[in-house]
Amino acid sequence: xxxxxxxxxxxxxxxxxxxxxxxxxxxxxxxxxxxxxxxxxxxxxxxxxxxxxxxxxxxxxxxxxxxxxxxxxxxxxxxxxxxxxxxxxxxxxxxxxxxxxxxxxxxxxxxxxxxxxxxxxxxxxxxxxxxxxxxxxxxxxxxxxxxxxxxxxxxxxxxxxxxxxxxxxxxxxxxxxxxxxxxxxxxxxxxxxxxxxxxxxxxxxxxxxxxxxxxxxxxxxxxxxxxxxxxxxxxxxxxxxxxxxxxxxxxxxxxxxxxxxxxxxxxxxxxxxxxxxxxxxxxxxxxxxxxxxxxxxxxxxxxxxxxxxxxxxxxxxxxxxxxxxxxxxxxxxxxxxxxxxxxxxxxxxxxxxxxxxxxxxxxxxxxxxxxxxxxxxxxxxxxxxxxxxxxxxxxxxxxxxxxxxxxxxxxxxxxxxxxxxxxxxxxxxxxxxxxxxxxxxxxxxxxxxxxxxxxxxxxxxxxxxxxxxxxxxxxxxxxxxxxxxxxxxxxxxxxxxxxxxxxxxxxx
Length: 508
Prior knowledge:
By secondary structure, the chain is α/β, with parallel strands linked by helices. Helices cover 28% and strands 26% of the residues. The chain has 2 domains: 2-13 and 365-491, Immunoglobulin-like, CATH 2.60.40.1500; 24-361, Glycosidases (TIM Barrel, Alpha-Beta Barrel), CATH 3.20.20.80.
């Protein structure tokens, strides 16, 4: 079953498109940044995509060893801070030209008011026993970072207070009043260090999100807190069905998610003093669990392509959760493909969704077309770049035929395409065909990396004279769950004397 869509792009077309695909990327807890493959995966992501910021959990968790206590000779307890691991992590980020989007959490065990934890690595999610001690920790950390990396640098790093306090698993009892206290005290402490810091929250996800956003804005208004931005999360699957180590989730209709994001925008804008305030999606993906095989698939890549075309409409930024599969919420992953969140599978193997981000990174210039299947931009030199996709929530077998008529000049053009679909770029299938090895040999890793690259093709396109001027006709066939990046640009032939390509190819 095929579907055909035809579009004609006007010469003066200008379509709104806020492309912030590279603003921020998510990561597992901070302590994982000390691992070798974590660094290798992040280096790959930065080389091919290049994100500006990185956000993750566990800045103050015990494996980072920042908060310490000692007892003096009089039996009195004192706080002290150890920034050894923090420096190693931040040094590695800056070396790769990526800066932190600081998430303040979780609670150091020695500072916590309770014992409730989350994840395999036991991040404490209870309020501080002493808010004064918590504020001193936050201030000491920021002052250390400013001393090490420079005030002018560090004050540009956004700061988010906690993670998903509307979920009882991430904040004891999902206590809204207690979270608002945490936010107010933390906000004031940060601004005391330097008023230029930008601080936001409440970093909510799913449950009672409308209520939490509205109450948060009302609290900030009532307490005269000049919050700098609002944060929330965005996941797009139904409740998963568990089978063994894995959880299988069905995708939601994309419009449902977009409508929910619009509601958040409307709530924030309903407060006159906060109207137009930046909203940052500090986590998004299809599924919200790290053992969902959907994450490893081409279907995920196509669905995310649709998301990236719209997420900037009402949000300042949107951060994919996560860049790589060095990630241990449920324990150490036991296979290279295990449904992890990451753009990169363990073994430094790019997943199909990796290329969706890499393709969108190329979409600079003026947007001339945006639909449910495509985004096209025009460069200053008159060339075009675009991303097209064939997104379906469930398998249909539908192949999508797209035809674009684009204004051009009277000269030859080349159409370059990079294709990611289940036939051309599907390391998951190869891994399956190899017997799903849990522990990859070096030759298997190399083979999978080769299978994980887009298929590159080219063809010449000649303009056609019309009453509206020269037009370039581009036709793209997108297989189900496929994503294609294309460039259409003028060609100036500069062949060597006596060289004839048609003759080489034995064409008449």
